[in-house]
Design a protein that fits this description.
The structure is a single chain. This protein is α/β, with parallel strands linked by helices and about 425 residues long. Helices cover about 30% and strands about 25% of the residues. The strands form 9 sheets. The protein has a 6-stranded mixed beta sheet, covered by helices on one side. The protein has a 4-stranded parallel beta sheet with strand order 13-12-11-17.
Length: about 425
């Protein structure tokens, strides 16, 4: 247990699930809190793909961090970007001027970004999905592909614009893959005259032996059948070797497509390297049993920044885990202020859900597993309940009800069209490899 001043200052890096939960749990504690985030809003990330596929608006799944914490008198919010951490001097340096913020306790929860496995040159051609800006960019490319196809006089080019490649068979890739065919075949089909949107081709590429590796195999197979029923082509045991402006190379085969999305992997925030702790291959911090950084009991790392084993298995990098970790470290700080010993973190898996499209989902609650419409309704209920703010819950419920009965996607806006200039093809890089 570190030395605890009369009223310790707690600095929280990151306004995501873990950071917000930690701050909220310290609401009545005898501490002063500073939460810093490079944006001013919290994002409900499980529904980002619905913004990307024009089913929800960005404002439906976000909330201002200041509004969320508005009733906490012991909390200040700074829109700033953490650049460095000095655990010896107990300061965080933020923004370009490296202004220093001192702390007695530090909670590091910066989230993660998508990883291209050493091929960052692919990102301009296959954007990932981690932030509202990413979702808006994917939505723009998705909708604009149909607009360009409508104008094209070249059948081959038109086919390329109607082909979408999603790299990565985890929940995000599966949800994107399931949403696109439904919108193309139901919402858009009556609106275009020269192009048949029902001819949309969706290819899901996964390097592993099956999609949804975090789910039981029988549920993953059910999801694969649902995707196939929607017309999605699934390529497993397939390594992406190159991404270009007009296609994705899978081994020695080129899938010709003008639009690709990346959902294949994550990399931890670079802040982990400042903590002086062991890191895994993805840059995640190996934390102690109480989620503190080895050698620095006053510093906690949570969420996507950490790697933590429980009963021989890694705790997953999902929102429920981040929530539990945020609440746990807040309780540890409170126990320190009361001179009570800390406890060991234990993750309780409440179950996993994934949707594959309209009326299609899978649910895993350990011994209880099921799929289909019931799982889909449960998925809807859980996600509405966990949204931040009554307004967002009502709006999302109405949008989903509207989409269910009308087969329409509600937010099909293409903004900032002048910005859309497909990046030029970079010089060929020798020796490119997959995952």
């Amino acid at each position: 247990m570190p030395d605890v001043p009369a009223r310790p200052r707690v600095v929280i890096i990151g306004g995501g699930f873990g950071g917000i939960t930690a701050a909220s749990a310290l609401k009545r504690a005898n501490v002063d809190i500073t939460l810093i985030d490079r944006t001013n809003h919290f994002i409900f990330q499980p529904l980002l793909y619905q913004v990307a596929t024009a089913e929800l608006a960005p404002s439906d799944i976000t909330a201002p961090i200041r509004w969320i914490l508005r009733s906490q008198r012991n909390t200040e919010v700074l829109m700033a970007e953490a650049r460095e951490i000095d655990p010896e001097r107990r300061v965080v340096r933020v923004d370009d001027d490296l202004r220093e913020l001192p702390y007695d306790y530090l909670i590091v929860a910066p989230g993660s970004r998508h990883s291209y496995f050493g091929h960052d040159e692919w990102e301009p051609y296959a954007p990932g999905l981690k932030a509202i800006e990413d979702a808006s960019e994917i939505r723009r490319r998705f909708l604009l592909a149909y607009e360009i196809a409508e104008k094209s006089e070249n059948p081959k080019e038109r086919e390329e614009y109607l082909t979408f490649v999603i790299v990565g068979g985890g929940p995000t890739g599966v949800e994107l893959s399931g949403a696109i065919p439904f919108i193309a075949k139901k919402a858009l089909v009556a609106e275009f005259r020269r192009v048949d949107t029902r001819r949309t081709r969706v290819v899901l590429v996964e390097a592993g032996p099956r999609i949804l590796p975090s789910f039981p195999e029988d549920l993953a197979q059910h999801a694969a059948r649902d995707l196939a029923d929607l017309g999605v082509e699934i390529r497993v045991n397939s390594f992406v070797t190159k991404v270009e402006r007009d296609g994705v190379w899978v081994g020695g085969e080129k899938i010709r497509a003008r639009t690709a999305f990346w959902a294949a992997g994550n990399k931890a925030s670079p802040l982990g390297k400042f903590l002086g702790a062991p890191l895994d291959s993805a840059g995640r911090v190996k934390v102690s049993d109480d989620l503190s950084v080895p050698g620095h009991p006053e510093v906690f790392a949570i969420g996507d920044l950490t790697t933590f084993q429980q009963d021989g298995r890694l705790v997953p990098w999902v929102a429920p885990a981040a929530n539990q970790q945020g609440a746990f470290v807040a309780k540890s700080i409170i126990r320190d202020t009361r001179r009570q010993p800390r406890k060991k973190f234990h993750y309780f898996n409440k179950g996993d859900l994934a949707t594959i499209g309209r009326s299609r989902a899978i649910a895993d609650f350990g011994r209880v597993r099921f799929a289909g419409r019931l799982a889909w309704f449960l998925w809807l209920f859980v996600h509405i309940m966990y949204l931040v703010g009554f307004r967002n819950r009502i709006v999302v419920f109405i949008e989903w009800a509207y989409a269910y009965f009308t087969y329409q996607a509600g937010v099909r806006l293409i903004t900032d069209v002048e910005r859309y200039k497909p990046p030029a093809q970079p010089p060929t890089v020798a020796g490119t490899t997959g995952r």
